[in-house]
Design a protein that fits this description.
The chain is mainly α and 140 residues long.
């Protein structure tokens, strides 16, 4: 499905400027990941994301079938991104965008949809969900 769409990894014109932000343990050359290996890894990674998307659609379809969709708070998030060859590295061990920018979706019945770009943290998830459910955080 993704054999021909994996984009080239991002490499800045001066990669040395970013060394302080990267873990040297997962530099592609150091761990023996070739260009062909990287393409294959990206294909598998994108396929896994499609599999998760498919499973989420099954959950949403079931909520609709059971007439629970319009009264259910739905939240989806990931704990980290993946460098996937950007800056010549793999993994999640940096604070660069590819490793730290994650999907975060929240659907609240009756709340107007919007797209936000604020910086947030997963530590905000539990207090936010408790507040949406009308549970006082001091009770938890």
């Amino acid at each position: 499905m993704y054999r021909s769409v994996a984009p080239d990894p991002y490499m800045p014109s001066k990669p040395g400027d970013f060394q302080d932000f990267l873990s040297d343990r997962f530099i592609l050359d150091r761990v023996g990941i070739s260009r062909q290996d990287l393409t294959l890894l990206k294909n598998y990674y994108y396929s896994c994301i499609s599999f998760v998307d498919y499973q989420i659609s099954r959950i949403l379809d079931k909520l609709k079938e059971l007439h629970l969709y319009d009264q259910t708070i739905i939240m989806f998030a990931s704990d980290h991104g993946e460098m996937l060859g950007d800056f010549g590295t793999m993994g999640k061990r940096s604070m660069l965008d590819a490793a730290s920018h994650i999907p975060f979706l929240l659907r609240v019945p009756g709340m107007k949809s919007s797209m936000r770009t604020d910086v947030c943290s997963l530590v905000d998830v539990a207090p936010t969900l408790r507040a949406l459910c009308g549970i006082d955080s001091r009770e938890a």
